[in-house]
Every structure is written in structure tokens, then in C-alpha cells.
């Protein structure tokens, strides 16, 4: 018996995939990019904004601050072009972020997990510099080279230190181009690596002692850093560095309606990328997931009547998006395409139960105390209980 996994006539390795450019995305033969950069995905909107934008642009900016804010919050241009909203939230907050970048100060986006810090940073860089790819990913292992520069050791040994042997970091490249450099998870980097940014941000130069030289930043260079407020204490930011940033705190969505809108929009976009049917997810299911997340986060039901135990999980908007996307994938491939309670139950459990010793108790209490009694939620209660009976819930609840 041959398993049905024999290679199709054209194997992937028979012909290596061509390196992709934005234009190559139009090639109908090749599979689409899994996740295009913001400047690729929204190239049309960015071009339309640049064409319509008559306002003053700061040096090296592709768009004026007004057009950047319109790109982020959405709007309709005079020629009728619709600009989709990327960030759903306070206009003032976005204006403050954009205005900061138009000064010589750097921007720190701070907030809970899943509050769109990375998302906003990518779209800001795409709108301002047309390039969101100059990124330093902060981890405990990030070295100073990632912020300053490294060396091509073969050339260094053969030729000695020279500009050609130098490997610029994303920050250095942004300095020479006058672009936005992004630093993700700033507080996860060691203190000495963070401090390498201080000279860059205050002097706008990057010394290269080995060449008795330096790089001077071109106007337009700036840094957008993100940091998670749950990580505070991992590597506290030095006050010297903090003073170089204007901080914008991204809040959790203020209302259930706002969060439902965020989830619905992002699910539709992700669904398109995953080639799921072009049908919006049932709004009722999105609302239920969002309500559950908000109630468990807040420790009280939406009507304020019942207190509930808060699980250890973050239950971010980003996780609500993946519960719905996962549910839609189940419904599409294993159901009739309609998102139902049983499609979201498994995702919900996965999102809520992070600590197997305490979270199952909190979840079971919530199911019995809130979900069971809520009119119209019986199907969800049953779907969750069926999963528990199947042993899908980590032990510890009984
Ligand atoms: N207010 C919002 N407007 C639009 N999208 C949002 C909003 N809040 C969350 N999202 C969506 O949530 C998802 C996750 O956001 P993102 O990864 O940027 O979070 P984060 O704040 O960087 O989280 P982490 O701290 O875990 O890195 C994105 O797909 C984003 O579209
Ligand atoms: Mg992030």
C-alpha cells in the first residue's frame, strides 16, 4: 500500500523557488508569501497616500505625519481611495506616536501582550520609511553587534579592518539611510546591549573605533522600540535610556465592541492569507470569545454581577484572533464551513489553560457559574464539557 503522500509531478526541490520580490507576488504560479511585509501588503494604499499627500514631509519621510496617521487609522482620500484601518484605537495616541517620530526623539511602545505594539511599529516604519525590515529582535542572547556592527571574519583576517569587512546592524543601516530602525522587546536585551543605543540616540552617531571613524545619522533616522509591561524586571531599562524615548502606552481595547471589531477585521485578513472562504466569521461567535476573554481578564462578568476567578493566561486580543482563526479552519476543513461552538471550544481551552495546576479550576468554575446559565450559551457549555470528557483538558480540575 502506498501512502497518499507520494510527491506530485512537480516537486518543490525540482525547481528552487525564485527569490521573491513584491512584483513576484503577482506571479499566479507561485504560492503567495505567507506574510508579506506591511509595505508589500499595503503598497497600493501607500502609493495612493503619497500621491494625494500635499502636506509637508519631515526629511526622508515618504509621507507627511497627517498621511501616516491616515494610513494607520484609515480614511477615504479625495479621489475615493479607501485606506483601511490598521490600528483601532485612540487617534490622539497615534498622533502622539507619529509626532514623536517627527522630532529627534525615539518612540517606545509599551503595553500588555497583544496590544499591537509590534503591529503598530511595523506599520509606522512602513509608512514613514517604506521599509519595516530594519529590525533588531531583543532576546537575552542579543549581542551588541546587533545594535552596532559586526565583522565579516574572512575579510577581516584577509584584509584587516576596513569598511568593506564591516557588517552593519539594522540600526546602522537605518542611520545611513535616514530610516526607522525597530527594536523589538527592548527590555529582554541585556543592559549593556540596551546601553549601546544611548550614544546612537543622543549623539546620533555610531563610533567605529577600529577604523578611527564613525557613522553619522542622516535626518529621518529614528528608533521605534517595543516592550512588554509584563516583562518588566527581566532587564529593567536604565533611566538614561528611558529618557531618550517618548513612551506611548498601548491600552487593551476599551470596550467589547472595539475588541470585537479588531478581532473580526484581523480574522478576515488572516483568513484571506490562509485561503479560507471569504465569509466573515459568525459575529456571535467572535462576540462570545471576546466576552469570555474580557470577563476572565477582568475577574468579573460583563454585567458586573458575578466575580470570576482570573486564570494565569494573558488572554490577549491576539489570542482571541487565533482562537477564531483556528475555529474557522476547523469549520472549513472538518465541518460545514459555519463557525460553531465546537470549533472554538478547543482553542478557548488552549488559550485559557496555561498553568495546568490552577487554570483548569478557574475555567471549570467559569463554565459552571457563567457559561452554563447564560441564555443561548448552552451549545458552548456542552462543547467545552465534551472536550473535558474526552480528556482534552489538563488534569487537575477535579
Ligand atoms: N487596537 C488594535 N488595532 C488593530 N489590531 C490590533 C489591536 N490590538 C491588537 N491587534 C492585533 O493583535 C495582533 C497582535 O499584535 P502584536 O503582535 O503587535 O502584539 P504585541 O503588543 O507586540 O504583543 P507582544 O507583547 O506579545 O509582543 C495583531 O494581529 C494586531 O493586528
Ligand atoms: Mg510584540
TrEMBL record:
Gene3D superfamilies from the UniProt entry: P-loop containing nucleotide triphosphate hydrolases
Biased composition (Low complexity): 7-25
Domain of life from the UniProt record: Bacteria
Chain intervals for the UniProt region annotation (Disordered): 1-25
InterPro entries to which the protein is assigned, alphabetical: AAA+_ATPase, ATPase_dyneun-rel_AAA, CbbQ/NirQ/NorQ/GpvN, P-loop_NTPase
Domain (AAA+ ATPase): residue spans on this chain: 103-255
Protein name in the entry: AAA family ATPase
Organism: Frankia umida
